[in-house]
Fold these 4 entries.
Entry 1:
Amino acid sequence: MKLKGKERKGTSYLGILIALVALCVVLTFASDSFLTASNLLNVSQQISTNFLIAIGMTFIILLGGIDLSVGSIIAVTGLMMGLMMKNWNMPVILSLLLGVAFASAVGLVTGLLITGFELPPFIATLGMMSIARGAAYTITEGQPIYTFPKGFLAITGRYGGIPVFTILIMVVMFAVAAYVLKYTKYGRYIYAIGGNENCAKLSGINVKKIKCIAYVISGFCCGVAAIVLTSRLDSAVPTNADGAELDAIAAVVIGGTSMTGGEGTLVGTIIGTMIIGVVANGLNLLNVPQGAQRMVKGGIIVLAVIVDVIRRKRSQKA
Amino acid sequence: MADQYILKMSDITKRFPGVLALDHVSLRVKKGEVHALLGENGAGKSTLMKILSGAYVKDEGEIEVFSQKSELGNPKAAEDLGISIIYQELNLIPTLTVAENIFLGCYKMSNPVKVNWKAVYQEADRLLEDLGVDVKSTDYIRDLGIAKQQMVEVAKALSKDAKIIIMDEPTAPLTERETKNLFRIVKKLKEEQVSIIYISHRLEEVMEICDRATVMRDGCTIKELDIANVTMDEIIRLMVGRELKEKFPRIEKQIGDEVIRVENLCAGSRVQNVSFSVRAGEVLCVGGLVGAGRTETVRAVFGLDARTDGRIYIDGKECNIRNPKDAISAGIGYVTEDRKGEGLILKLGVGENVTLAALDAFKTGIHLNLSKEKNTVKEYVSKLNIKTPSVYQKVENLSGGNQQKVVLAKWLLSKCRVLILDEPTRGIDVGAKIEVYSLINELAKEGKAILVITSEIPELLGICDRVVVMARGKVSGSLSREEADQESVMTLAVGAEERGKQHEA
């Protein structure tokens, strides 16, 4: 049989990009307030948390793993930073650095559980999800922390109506992660391990190390997301980012990354977070009740995967 | 006499997007014959067999089974007509027992709810006994080696009372003895008037076991033959469409100093006190039966399995190899027998596979120079004559022979000095095999030390400079190229095993 040459990059997220554009067009007609600068800036701020953790989640899912602990890590990290800034009067910068370090360390523990004891990622991160959430309730005995220092709130503040630093953080995180995946040995190894762990091992790759680092990256992303979320809400509560892991996984999957690993792009994930964000925003503008919104979100996830499955089958037959 | 054909496929055409896979292909199989379907990979054999087993639907043409026109639109219809296929890639569930697998989907029931497990296991034991294999119906598939799993597949097809059995490369993973066993079964089935369509790249076997053959090339039927009236060379010429001068090309080369020496290697129960060495430019073949501990030995050398004892020297210096990374930096490359499971990352492109073990060469700081990588990959693609439309093509879309060349390219790029090849030509076609042999020759000429594990004795004799034979985890003998022949290798491979069994008894 003859083979047709196909470039791997570029084609895989074209479909969802079209879907995103179509969605925006529909919403523009359905609601007068959708296509306005202030609304779109709102959307960008609303998706920021999911955007940041979905970056880490992309690494994990490309490896063939999963991280259910991200929402809980955000909550406990937010409270830790709150304690440091408010109760212990530590400098903002130091508190944030320690917070991100703490979140990364939690990721490292998860990674070590998965590689050291060979726990399935689902189980290890399910455990960590509960531990971190429990810790969030414990450290302040369930009490929220609010009215943060001005310097901290400035991170998500708007300047001329634009959430400059939030967008900057998102862009930098995306650019660095995209670079790592495409232009570093580490990124290539992520795809290799997700594609075929045995082959990766045989090619001299230290699989455990790569996996551990991925969970640290996911933890780091949670730390950054905790800063953005806590600052935007001006409150750290144990229930923050409840269920965030599901949104992040949904974004990655909608973005075309295979749940079995080895295939997918960060650009796809970003489009995925945008689709979820735009849908939520659009449904809000159209005054659709919360219950119905969740049903729509679930439907989109399932639909996206169905489309992906069909696409893959077609490309295999061709 | 028209009725003597149990199966007639005429003018079968099948198109895939952009590809004409089958172009008016015909196949006629007589009752109770072993019919070989021959052709290089990509000739359309698999597509034709998938149509026959109902996995694909034909676009044009006619199929007659037992003189009745039939459409065979789905696997169930084919099965009901008595057509069974044993795929090259085994189709068993690892977590179930042998009996549960054999009768999967058609368990005998005591009543509408309860499975009659006793009957299922008894029937399975009977089938396995007929096959003469050392497998218990209560064994779990995951605990069986690939050869035994293959036998379970055969038993499964037999359990369906098939009148036409398609065997796709059934002997590829089998040893000589297991192959003989399979042939015994094939002959028995023939006596019972079962027809067998036999796909194999091993022409020696085809000559031995088959009555007639159909040769395919590039999606067309080339010729229908009586095996008794042709020679192997004629068949090869028909398959390849050109003359192949030598099946095992040889070149002039210098054999230099010792590169790798393994002393008293022990690893688990399958590798006991194994010692050998390979010199620069030398091709050392390791013969023996499947399960003799050959793969386990090289896995231990490569650091994949833990060594319990023994030393490994490269260029006279002892190397402490604890994992594949150590092995690669010591200059060892390992082409495994399981190409898809261990050798390649099917979802990734040709380029990413080729450079996987040598990414450091394209790195400045943390930055990978992708265009440099691409150029190097292109260079290796043309050097090894890998047929691929681009370096981005996913390797899962390449043929077996080209996939194997991708694996070879990976190790060449890693600048290894010792190259271990485990069954390097399994499941690849005649033309590609010769290319692999030529590559092995060239690499040896460049001064690499090459270790080849092969269960095909003609191949072993054809490419070796020296032979080591293993049996029951030990080296049972070493032969020079002059000393080695079919008999001496088999004696060492089997003899030691027989003696071992007597000692135990």
Entry 2:
Amino acid sequence: MKRETFESSLGESYVKAVCSSGVTVYVMEKPEYSSSFAIFGTKYGSIDNCFSVNGGEPKKVPDGIAHYLEHKLFESEDGDAFSKFAKTGASANAFTSFDRTCYLFSCSDNVYENLKILLDFVQHPYFTEETVRKEQGIIGQEIKMYDDSPSWRVTFNMLENMYHNHPVKIDIAGTVDSIAKINADLLYECYNTFYNPSNMFICVVGNVDTEEVLSICETNVKTKSPIDIKRIFECEPQTIIKPYVEQNLSVANPMFCLGFKQKIETPFRRLKSKICVGLLLEVICGECSPLYEDLINKGLINDEFSYEYFNGYDYACVMFTGESSEPKTVEEAIKKEIDNIRQNGIDKKLFSAVKCGMYGDAVRRYNSVSEICMNFAESAIFDYDMFEEIRLLKTVTLDDVYKRLDIFDNDLSVLSVIKPLEK
Amino acid sequence: MSVSKFEISNGAQGLFVKNSRFKTTLVSVNFYLPLNKDKVARYALLPFILTTCGKDYPSFRKLNFKLSKLYGAELTASAEKIGDYQLLKMSVSVIGDKYALDGEILTQEAIELLTSLIFEPKVQDNSFFKEDVEREKRKAIEHIKGEYSEKRVYAKNRLIEEMYKNDCYGVPKCGTIEDVEAIDGDNLFSAWQEMLQNAFIRVNVVSNSMPKGLFDSIGEKLSAVERNNITDISNTIPTKPANEVNTITERTEINQGKLVMGFSLQKFGGDVSTADSFVATDIFGGGPYSKLFSNVREKMSLCYYCAARSVRVKGLVTVESGIEAVNAEKAQKAILEQLKSLQDGNLSDDEFNSSILGLCDSLKSYNDRSEAIELWYSTRISDKELLSPEEFAEKVKLVTKDDVIKAANGIKLHTVFLLLPEVDK
């Protein structure tokens, strides 16, 4: 087993190891904690709807299949995974996002037994045409729930108009029509492709012994021949579809999502870029910024206002979301502030305050076993040392952050608005 | 981990939860006042206005600058209903001094900041400033309106409102839009004075070490206030069973319907006496081993979510589910059948053991989240003796199958609220 130990200035350390099966394992001991948190994940999400294996023909699968597979993996011939965890007291769950599917549990007792259950059920798919069909009702309900969620809709309406081809524009759960095309054979095909140990990771944080965790992972993850998976995306033009989109829903306050598409040349963003963009967003419209104060005082935004650097395999954009009676005025104000910073530079005092704040937030994240575990998953997907964040936050400069202003191009912005129903 | 209790002054307690696992210190000042329809909105606005500006921090930009320089110290505010009381909470969480990069003192400064905001607000001539009041009022009104946008929240709120029409518990936690509109600088200042004079106060600290002088300094500040009429927090009126079940249906433009049911609970009150109701609600509709999840969701595929929760201090159980409109009646029937089945004693060893194990396991993990521990202690107002999550887990372990069945028999349907699409889908 190949292994490496990483240490941080905060007094934390973790081990990263690659088992003989090819699965990568991350373990952080937190002996003073009562509980543990674990994730068994695969680098497979909703964007993986077209792929080729070992150089073969491209295969297109129905939208929403990664999420469908997540639901079905909980079942096996000898009862579902929930009933196994029920015997140990753990609390189990799973989620699918654009670029990953994660199965997880948290527990205070029986952590090793729970880990074995987790590893076992994810490696034992069992579906028949009948059990697959049965799930359509529940997932259909889940899709409808999201169709009613204004915060979900406002984001996807933006993405749908920002991206011509990239599957990040497609709803994670697919549609009622697309999931109707899913059958047992397709599920097995996707499973056998993406649930290969070489494409997977295990993260365990909490009251555990590293050696014991590694030994369980070594023994309980079966070796499969490594495969070469190629994600196939249609070429994404460096343009948007439409700069403005609106939808009427049963809401009281209008909502908005303003996105800026980034022109990218490589599939992944580096950690340093992510940190710099995060700091830049704080400078533009964080709670210490003049713009935030102005928008609040003018009644244009409220506490729901938020922003993020949204990025993954071959997609990257900045999003500003919130509630506002005048979304277009907010859009103009954000663009004006970006121009202002571009011309006059970043205020040094503001930069030093937001940097300090972000460093504190990063330290705070090490309070929570679940947050550390989620960070491990992120670092597994993007292949970096989690502690690098703390180091970069100490050294990043105002110039580094200023340079990131190039991600804002007004010709690539999309404003999505949800308005109340017209009576 | 250990918990120590201190008497700060008349009607004010301090609680120090010593916990060495966190990199932060959390201090939370909790004010408890009776729920009162006429005052709920102005009381609810207090934590928010007090944590956005202060005498020394006239603008929230200045305040936020300070918080950032304290390495992202988090200042939070909330107003919640706990039984028949309103809980106004203001907290600060800050990373330990040893993590500061230039030897800054963080903990003491963050705590002084919190107490100064609470006790030295930005006011003039016994009135809050108009621009601050109007800003917070607008945010509060948008927040109240925003609850309509998330239909799961809206449906639950409407159920509570209908179920407690003649009870203070039916009052929305931040009041109505009209109540908020009636707030001005003067009446908000009076509300602030009433909060200091009449509230029962609990200051909770979750940290590796007790911040020096914190409780003394709060005691000193309170000694300047006349505190003769302190809220007794032990008088929540339990939910009475309904003579007749009330069903309300509303329609709006949505894809998925919401079915929310409210039940009265015969066994109500604090943790010590209601561990049986806690387990009964969990087996009815808590974890994935529960009757609602395994039957109504998994076997019958009637809803993506279908869960029961209890508010034992008020003697209330709610069931929330998202359904297709055409299945509304079928789902309601199925949920009630599951309750009936539990009441009739259909309780397998697996269901029972899974619930006890699952509940005890998650109770033990409370101590790993500082906000969760603080919330645990600040929301337990009915017990004379304050149990820790582990101590409560020990009470849960003593519950028997017979206790569960008896407690389940005390769960009675009271009100049903249905939110359906304009046209059945």
Entry 3:
Amino acid sequence: MIGSAAARSAGSGTAGSGTARTAGRRFGVVVLVGGALVPLVPLLVWAFAGQWRYPALVPQRMSLRGIGLLTDPRSEIPKALLTSTLIAVSVAVLAVVIGYPAGRAVGLYRFRGRRAVQFLLLAPVIVPGLASAVGLQVFFIRYGLADSATGVVLVQLIPTVPYAATVMAAAFANLDTDYERQARALGADPLRVLLFVTLPLMRPALLLAGLFAFLISWSEYVLTLLIGGGQVTTLPLLLFAAISSSDTTAAAALALLVIGPPLLLVLISGRLPATRSGAVIGLGRL
Amino acid sequence: MTATAITLTGLGKSFGMTDAVQDLSLELAAGSFTALLGPSGCGKSTTLSMLAGLTAPDRGDIHFDGASILDLPAERRPVGLVFQKPLLFPHLTVADNVGFGLRMRGMRSRDRARRVAEMLDRVQLGGLGERRVGELSGGQEQRVALARALVLEPDVLLLDEPFSQLDTTLRAQMRALLRRLHVDSGITTVFVTHDQGEAVEVADTIALMLAGTLAGHGTPESFYTRPETLAGARFFGVTNEITGRTRHGRFSAPGTAIDVSTDLPDGDAVLVIRPEMIQLEAQAGVVDGRRIGRVVGARFAGTHVSVDVELGHHRLRVHHPAGRPITIGQSIGVDLRQGAYTVFTTTGR
């Protein structure tokens, strides 16, 4: 009797908490999205402000000067946008290619020293990039890689490869390698197994790893400055310059430009049909 | 198509300290359907994997029609392989899965489509080619896997517990389909299973593997009537083991009045007999030389009554025809059918 009463109340409780949970989840989403978007509001306002002096609540005069800067072919910004994009894409591709074997080894195989390799993979994340970059700068200069975009791409692999490898290791841990054995038995040599089976199965993880690497590279400042030596100008470098020159309108417009592409990428990647095979390797949708 | 004979000679594989397969020699006739039977961990899947070229043997050799295939990498061996899991590539349609091997061989897509459609018809999946693999049932998935292997017209078909994840009815249907495909194609087939009932039903010959070694090879019937090893007899459900001794060509077990001829050397031995091979005769009175036991338990089991009989200090399980009366406590004549038992030596074990 007591048991059935308890069960009944528990039953109604579940129904009640079900709606409460949905409401709670919605609230959480609103807070998260709001928290991410609210800081953008003053940025937006600043980007279009012509004159905005204390203590006015809104700018005294609006202007398109900030936006004009972004498209002005004489400014450094369009070129920096291109440089940033090229560097970030190169870094993303290279980080995935380099991180792939490491991710496979750590995710799939149990070998002596696996924990150590795992730790070493994460070491560049734990050790501040600046510290290792200062040491590396000497070598970059010696091998003529300093002050070049190539050097910047290479140095940015330090913070990105570990992330890429770790993301792929998690996916590899869920990969059923019997798919590869099956493909071999169907007449695919190892290279074709990779191209026609493993890479398609791993596609969600490859995209995710690449996305992470792109985002890290896109907002990288210290390493670019150190190895690029002012010769390689990316968007974050221009942004810092604008901030330190107290041109708030230019800084705000630039900040919007820096935020835009990653935001767009994340939004698109959430809707990619490419994630269909994600269930196989346990990643679900990106 | 002429079928391929398989010969394994002294095949061995170790993983670390464990010998998965030890000195396995086996001849599989061209066009035969062999069940590679054994409990899990007996080395049967490793053997299959070595046949497919996915595991390299440490010792021994494998010949197809007299030619060693050890130098051939997996992708160039003329074998079709179906695993326990369907392993359909999730990024491809059903038709692209079945056509995968043909594509690897460089067949043009129009020819491929025709062959794939034919093959899908043969496994009763005609018209499902454009489906995504996630939309199939378990039985359909395994039929696609079968079609994917057979469309390559391999010389040898290898199946690793292919139906063990399906329910009983579906499994029976799949076995029937597989039998039909085998009869049609005459392809030499090796079917790995741990289920002796399945092995008996699907295969023409059974190779029993226990602890990495061959424990018998013959027709399903021979495993019931003339088991080659005691372990093999046990695996096929012999429940009655009567321990005794052999001496001067006779096996006798103290207290049971069992005394039968044997060609084993003198020493410790055990007589095994299946429960359905013992006859109980309810005549009273001790006839000369007759073995008299006492009924200690009886349980109706559908097609028969499962009777426990005490004979000497042995307890025997007997399958007694249903409908013939039997009472617990009664004395009863125990007859071992001539030729229905086997004696194994246990000396030196």
Entry 4:
Amino acid sequence: MFKGDMTVHDISLMKGNEALAEAAIRAGLDAYFGYPITPQSEILEYLSSEFVPKGGIVLQAESELAAINMIYGASGAGARVMTSSSSPGISLMQEGLSYSACAELPFLIVNVNRGGPGLGTIQPSQGDYFQAVKGGGHGDYHLIVLAPATVQEMADFVYDGFDLADKWRIPVMILTDGALGQMMEKVEFRPYDKSQRIPKPWATTGKTKGRERNIITSIHLEPEQMEDFNIHLQKKYKKICEEEVRFELINAEDADLILVAFGLSARIAHKAIDLAKDQGINAGLMRPITLYPFPTTIMNLLAKKTKAILVVEMNSGQMVEDVRLAVDGQVPVYFHGRMGGMIPSPEEVLDEMLTLSQKHEFRVIVQE
Amino acid sequence: MEPIIDLENLECVYLKPGTLVDTQTRYCPGCGHGVAHRVVMEVIDELGIQENVIGIAPVGCAVFAYFYLDIDMQEAAHGRACAVATGIKRVLPDKYVFTYQGDGDLAAIGTAETIHTANRGENILVVFINNAIYGMTGGQMAPTTILGMKTSTSPFGRDIKLQGFPLKIADLIAMLPGSAYVTRQAVFTPNHVRQLKKSLIRAFGYQKEKRGTCLIEIVSNCPSGWKMTPLEANDWLEKNMLPIYPLGDLKVPEGEVKHA
């Protein structure tokens, strides 16, 4: 499909997966390790054709297990590295993610979410929310999780993801879905300043004279030491929660109903809000951009000013749990979701909104 | 009483290599790991490559190899050492990279990684300790456990019908076009230690020349897991393991001499 001589302009019409891969090259990617799986194979394909001729390292591993461990090794050796997969493959990578979280390795991992459980379907889904934000593998850990809603953000969040990973020495996940990966939109690649890269004196690059040996490990056998290390990790996560929360608000300050949705669902929710406006309903949107850290504080504040909250997801109701924790019973929190690769339509979300409008007696805003 | 030895005027003829950390190891008395560690580091010391080596520790008895080896190291998940080594070598192609793995790590849970790494011809060295048992978890059956051998999970002896055959992974690796040098060595006599040292020097040399994957299997013992004294274990190894796992080079790079 590609010949390795594709000219990508700073402004291009591209698939989400390809825009993400192009952004990784522009962000100074050193190496990519991955394994084919639909609907994300374009990332591996794009890098194979566009990055290798530029001297980049791209290796198709024998499995996702191998890929994530190649990432572990290369990240531990100080390189800027990325892997990507889709739901079943991400499940296979959970062991490596747990080890990497413990070894505090910075890298970018992309989950182009498809419908599950099991082999499931190759259609888009947000069913991996719990796995992404609660840890996923064994033990007490988190990743930073970014949720793009446009092809533009598929590219932008690669830059941000690499920077956050290096800043906090943490694996960063871009949690997107099969629709965003496959759809084509306009994308503008902003310049990336590679000179700002953080040095990695901890990396295993060979023990030079005058320094202690560098060790990348995740084992602390003595429980006292393991607890101390866990305390260190939890302090880091707390600081991340204080400093890195990102979200987008649309008409959320004075709305009777606030929709909460991320990624593709947020675009559908936005459309439903516009449709509801024609019916006289004053609704707003809170779109979490960081799923971990979750925008808990703003969610709690918004709940003080609204009558009800409706969470829209492409799963059976996962993020809604974090919303309810943040809202803390101040107002009712409702849920509308579709599963197994189905995408909710703006009209069905509107129907839910109309029902809630009657139930909670929303103000009727007369259009001028 | 007069001292039997004049400590003041002794000539030092045998030193611990400077690349070994001055600490007590967690290995059992009589275990081959200590000797294998020493020989690997002696070679790194003599080749003067300490600054350019990255080692990978496995899950198993050698999980804490980085406590003892004074080089940059990574500790891999169980079985994934070859994948980790691949990641390191690809981004640092001019460094020496070696894994140090046991039979369970390399030939059971990590079989796929081991085979594909060798098949890609990654320029790394795999040091493979084969003691036919899972030592760290307390003496369970390994892929390399020989037929009839009793372990805690083959208490009546390994039976083909129940547990299949011992896996000769070095022979498998030697068949792959990506492997350059595959040899089987031992550490239970001084002569075998000397042979191993020569093999390690060859393997690091081949890595420098980017000839492909090198694997050195070390047929070793596990007195604790085998429920034997160290001497009994060495004796048992010679009589029972070497007929199944004969020592010598299985494969050498083109134009090189194969040693028995």
